[in-house]
Amino acid sequence: MTTFSELWRKLRDKAYREQMVAEQAKRAIPYQVRALLTSRGYSQKELAARAGLHQGAVSRAADLDYGNLTLNTIVRLAAGFDVAFVGEFVPFSRFVDYMNRLPTLGQVATFEDEDRSRRGETVAASQTMEAFGRHGVPSIRSTGTPIRMAKMRNDDSGRALAITIDDSDQRRSR
Amino acid sequence: MTAWRFLDYITEERVVPIADWYDAQDGQVRAAFDLRIELLRVEDDWGHRRRGRVKALAKAHRGLTQIPFEVDVWDRARRKSRRRRLRALGLWKQAIREFVFFGGVEEHGQNYVPADAFDRAMRHWRAFEQGRGTTRDHI
Prior knowledge:
The complex is a heterodimer. Chain A contains eight helices and two strands; from the N terminus they run H-H-H-H-H-H-H-E-E-H. Chain A is mainly α.
């Protein structure tokens, strides 16, 4: 793998960096299409069906030497893989970072996978809220089994005054 | 997946053929070559049945392998791009995921620049097989 400093030194040549950007734009997307096809286990035919494209278009999109992908095809491919596509102008430092991420370009989660993951976190967060109570902290529980009970004494305005740990359950069991 | 490893052959005279070729190219070719190598380094399967990344040479240059790549060069005056066809020449060791560079060449219709690039690469390959010279990691 080319180091940051080595690539940066080469980028000082204007012709080099212009062409590097062109090559990245033209070759890295087909490379990623191939990598995603492999990691998802899709055939070109299957991706074409998901993306609403002809198989020939997918074949060209996965060809490093084609170099004439249109934005329309790219956004259809994004739909087929159920991922986002972000095209933006960036400084060269970010370009170098991107180059270092080439080995991971085939690992992009679908929206549904991400959504499942995010919903999982949300459920956990709401369970935590219930465990701690929505108004004050009446009790602390782990997954349903009380370990120790915490009681909060509030003043009349609801302001917390003290938390006491109630270990009566444990004393009873002794 | 194990990344492919690229090596530069160094002759007994301490000449690095691929580096000499690379340094003689303009920035556009160097960029295209570097990006192609970086993509190949992380690409699992080079042996696509129709669009293989490498191509074995035949006849007088049997044993050598080429990595073809193209460069679309933007012609500012004519405001259109022009395609240049180039090849890196070397030895493809598929089983251990290595490629040893012996040189490079540009295709101009029926001609090649340098004209003796294939013969030179062939000589380097024979020397390499005889244990003459050494290699270094390609940067």
